[in-house]
Amino acid sequence: MSGRKGTRDCVLITGGAGFIGCNLAHRLASDGRKVLILDNLSRAGVEENLAWLQATHGDRIEAVVADIRHRETVETAVARAEQVYHLAAQVAVTTSVVDPIHDFQVNAAGTLTLLEAIRAQDRPPSLVFTSTNKVYGKLPGVNFASTGNRYGPKEALLAGRGVGEEQPLDFASPYGCSKGAADQYVLDYARTFGIPATVFRMSCIYGPHQFGTEDQGWVAHFLKRALAGEPITLYGDGRQVRDILFVDDLVDAMLLAQERIGSLQGDAFNIGGGTANTVSLLELLDRFPVLIGVKPDVAFDEWRPGDQPWYVSNTGRFFARTGWRPQVGVEEGLMRLARWLSDARAVPADRQRVAS
Ligand SMILES: NC(=O)c1ccc[n+]([C@@H]2O[C@H](COP(=O)([O-])OP(=O)(O)OC[C@H]3O[C@@H](n4cnc5c(N)ncnc54)[C@H](O)[C@@H]3O)[C@@H](O)[C@H]2O)c1
């Protein structure tokens, strides 16, 4: 493969118009960086994020509306990047079950296309890849019990610390498989080709600019439905527990990862709100009367594929290497998201879907 040289003038964010990408691009542009967004705008609503970014930051935000599977476009974008954040993805487990091939092509093959473009550079830009806790499946071998409105593991050590990176991989659902394959490719490109790359295995992220739907982004989805006076369907019994992480904290972690890439290269990190920021679906709904003055009607349906009864990240490895820990607690984070949603910036109900 021939090496390529070019002018490196920007930070590339694939999927930069999406929820996390928009928050990351906003931070980078606010810090004076030039941001190149590569996004096909397939997720409903994200064009509003892009318009907002461009209105806020002018020519610090450049957008290429294109698909991560389009090799030449990806190569051109990567050749200009000093750093890359790879977020573009088919993000919903439910959609992956309906169309596993599309899910694979975007998430696994799309990531490989990006990695090849990075490998082709004389001086490969550093890469942070957003993987998922779904690579650990339903945590086989862990026994759960429910107490009150929540599940938890029976093993006290695990309950106290959360899931660490030593947890065996067990890809669950087509989405888990495609993201898991991408996760392993990124780690292997660091190992085999020396690419400065690291992987974040992320739990539930929430915050402003999130167009949450029933398929993905449940915290925003629940709040949006409740604010609109609409009922909420819980798949399973609602006792599922997650550690939730406010997006500003994730952006801090992502910037730190790029800054310290030399020492993080080739490693994966579990990133989430951790044991201090856990909530079950039912517990979240219980907070709504105080938070937004509404108690929504709730219906129950079957569990969905790949759904974990409990998942809480042990973020100790990333803390030990960078000193990062979440700063925004559940109450404050929810208030900030509710405020953004009430500002009527969210998409109307008829567009609340994840486009495939
Ligand atoms: N939000 C979470 O809780 C969470 C948790 C774990 C992992 N992740 C991962 O983080 C990343 C960002 O998630 P998000 O919540 O911001 O989702 P999002 O849907 O808001 O953003 C993804 C962006 O990728 C774009 N996109 C989709 N397919 C594309 C394609 N083929 N080519 C180019 N762009 C494409 C979409 O238009 C969208 O703007 C994803 O990779 C996701 O798997 C998110």
What's the helix and strand layout?
Elements: E1 10-14, H1 19-30, E2 35-39, H2 46-57, E3 61-65, H3 71-79, E4 81-86, H4 93-98, H5 100-119, E5 126-132, E6 144-147, E7 150-153, H6 156-161, H7 173-193, E8 197-202, E9 204-206, H8 218-227, E10 232-235, E11 241-246, H9 247-259, H10 261-264, E12 268-271, E13 278-280, H11 281-292, E14 298-301, E15 310-311, H12 316-322, H13 330-345
Parallel strand pairs: 1-2, 1-4, 2-3, 4-5, 5-8, 8-12, 9-11, 10-14, 11-15
Antiparallel strand pairs: 6-7, 11-13
Bound molecules: nicotinamide-adenine-dinucleotide.
List the ligand species: nicotinamide-adenine-dinucleotide
Do you know the CATH architecture?
Answer: 3-Layer(aba) Sandwich
- What's the shape? globular
Could you list the spans in which at least 5 consecutive residues all have pLDDT below 50?
346-356
Arithmetic mean of pLDDT: 94
Category by helix and strand content: alpha/beta
- SSE order in H/E notation? EHEHEHEHHEEEHHEEHEEHHEEHEEHH
The description of the largest β-sheet is: 7 strands, parallel
Number of helices: 13
Widest β-sheet, arrangement of strands: 3-2-1-4-5-8-12
Instruction: Work out the number of β strands.
Output: 15
CATH structural fold name:
Rossmann fold
Q: Which percent band covers the strand fraction?
A: 15-25%
**What is the CATH C level class, in words?**
Alpha Beta
**Radius of gyration computed on alpha carbons:** 19 Å
Can you tell me the number of structural domains? 1
CATH H level: which superfamily? NAD(P)-binding Rossmann-like Domain
Descriptive notes:
By secondary structure, this protein is of the alpha/beta class. It has one domain (10-354): NAD(P)-binding Rossmann-like Domain (Rossmann fold, 3-Layer(aba) Sandwich), CATH 3.40.50. It is built from 13 helices and 15 strands. The chain has helices spanning 19-30, 46-57, 71-79, 93-98, 100-119, 156-161, 173-193, 218-227, 247-259, 261-264, 281-292, 316-322, 330-345; strands at residues 10-14, 35-39, 61-65, 81-86, 126-132, 144-147, 150-153, 197-202, 204-206, 232-235, 241-246, 268-271, 278-280, 298-301, 310-311. The strands form four sheets. A seven-stranded parallel beta sheet has the order 3-2-1-4-5-8-12, with helices on both faces. Helix 1 crosses helix 9 and helix 8 (218-227) packs across helix 11 (281-292). The longest helix is centred in the middle third of the chain and has 21 residues, at 173-193. The two termini are 33 Å apart. Bound molecules: nicotinamide-adenine-dinucleotide. Nicotinamide-adenine-dinucleotide binds at residues 15, 17-21, 39-43, 46, 67-69, 87-91, 106, 110, 130, 132, 179, 202, 204-205, 217.
